[in-house]
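User: Teach me something about this protein's shape.
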Amino acid sequence: MNMTEFSLKGKLAVVTGGNRGLGQGMAVMLAKAGADIVSLQRGDTCQETASQVEALGQKCYAISCDLSKLQSAESLAAEIEEKFGSVHILVNNAGIQRRYPAEKFPIEEWDAVMQIQLRSVFMMCQAFGQRMLERGTGKIINIASLLSFSGGLTVPAYAAAKGGIAQLTKALANEWAARGVNVNAIAPGYMATEMNTALINDPKRNAQIMDRIPAKRWGKPEDMGGAVVFLASQASDFVHGQIICIDGGWMAR
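Assistant: First, the predicted structure itself:
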């Protein structure tokens, strides 16, 4: 193996939620490896991400897409490939969080989480996956969670959706591995992003979390970089249906 197997030069990556947080961190790392980026997010700009990507000499395109209202990804995939060319890498990162005790969890909030965290992910995999299958090559990277393995507290919808992401990743890998499309997932641990502000600001929960992480710190978006570049590159061609934990050692505890 040589380092050229990690190169993404000439590749186009679609990243949902690429305008901030983990999505931004992964988009920038993919750009460092040579990929151009299409960032999908609510709103039609991703100025900060674009600035970082373009500073690396890569292109960054912003597409407005509200995944909470997505009923089909087919027209979206067709539009992106018509405008920018074949998509080689899909990173399904966008997500929301809702916290309530399970017995009081509003069903409309359950539906909102499921729509963005699971239903839209399947639609994106299906629409872009069909095109990858036709070409006989492609990399799909879903963003799972530590809650793909455990239940968490006061986040039953998120836990159910992320458990579903792990199983969806394996199911698609079973069908598509022999046809040239790799489907894998990354399971971030506790990351210092906007989604976890409530936990970071809760002294008791923050202390509990820090005590459980062997690395003794919260993760950062850039910590996702090595795994996402690996899974997007030729170096992972024989890797299928895996959920890679980026968690500071949480799952080893």
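Now, about its shape. Residues 122 and 168 are 8 Å apart (CA to CA). The mean pLDDT is 95. If you'd like, I can walk through any region in more detail.
User: That's plenty for now, thanks!
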